[in-house]
What does this fold into?
Amino acid sequence: MNVKKNINRGEAAEIQVLGLSHKTAPVELREKFALTAENIPEFLYRARCAGITEILYLSTCNRVEIYYTATDMERGSAALWGLLKELSGRHAGDVQEYFYARTARDAVKHCLAVASSLDSMVIGENEILGQFKEAYRIAAESGNTGVVLNRLFHHAFHCAKKVKTDTDIARNPLSIAYIACEQAKKVFDDLSSKTALLIGAGEMGELILKYFTKYEIREIIVANRTRCNAERIVEELNTRADIISLDELSRGLVQADIVISTASSPDFIITGEMMKELGRKRKGRPLFVIDIAVPRNIDPEVISLNDVFLFNIDDLKKIADENLKSRLGEVDRARDIIESSTNDFMQWYEELEIVPVIESIRNTFNTIRDREVNKYRRRKLKHLSDEDFRVIDELTRQIMTKTLHNPIMALKGYQASIRQGDFDCEDLREKTRMIKELFRNEDKT
It folds into this structure.
């Protein structure tokens, strides 16, 4: 449903995020609040009807977060809890302990941290930004975002991009499958001309092979004890492959450039002697071998052979751990970027509170000034020339500007005090209402 409504900061809407994630709630609870792209607009529509001014619903496998603004936050939050109660099928109090809430600056900072993947299960992963953009698209296209959330999420996307480009937080892969492919690319310049051999039907082996297919491997061979399992793997890969039995393994090893071994076996499937014999048939071609089976499938002695590059699961895990340390070392730099971006957004956000008031005051005084100057020109100063009145107009404009300087600067000073923690937002609103009341023009003559 599309709820087009004029949303403006003059309503003094507060920002809040309400959510749960892998850090606060088990998957069986998170899945109760997981909404599909088709169901989200209906939820947003009902929230808007209940008093929310702007709203976005982020639903992923690891988190559910609702970003919203409301002029009456107590009423808006109560309405949201009612909707969440319906989703969960439980009393709101039963699930409330699993949720976290952030308001104002804390909500903004949390949003930027999530978009920049600092709050993800895997720090530095890229998927969350795409999920955020999709959630924003749904909210915006259904008419549920306005001035505040539009600005916030474009700001979050820019911040996430800056974190990615200015730090190394996402540059070192953590996925075992991805790392395996990266190591192979160090041996072979062009993977598209190579043949990959998968031994066994282990899940991790399948995943690594799927990664290799993204590089358009020329040929795939699957060696397995049972043909039906091999056929299942080939079907899931959605590509052509040669299926062989383990008895034909030597033939596969001669053809292969890349070997992924994940078979269940108490003994070595590939021995050092076997590889020495095959080395003569291979004529010195490099062989990249990944042994992720436990117990190991491949005799570690093969690493001593020329042109054989062997990695086992511990080797790949060690690289992943080093990459994780590198990412964690970049977190402080990323947090500095988020802190600065939060400051920029909050400065813009807080100015929204006073800009309409400042414009209202200026417009009020300018209306009085124009009316009085024109009245005197028609009645008492008819003898003055246009040039004389141009001077008078400029003089009165300067008087107005100087007269309004102190109250306007006072408003801006109150705003700066909020950023420093000397006042809260309600203090600013009260002082804003007072100044606006003092300068209200009720003279209609």
In short: The two ends are 47 Å apart (CA to CA). Confidence is low (pLDDT under 50) at residues 3-11. The first helix runs from residue 27 to 30. The domain at 176-319 is CATH 3.40.50.720 (Rossmann fold).
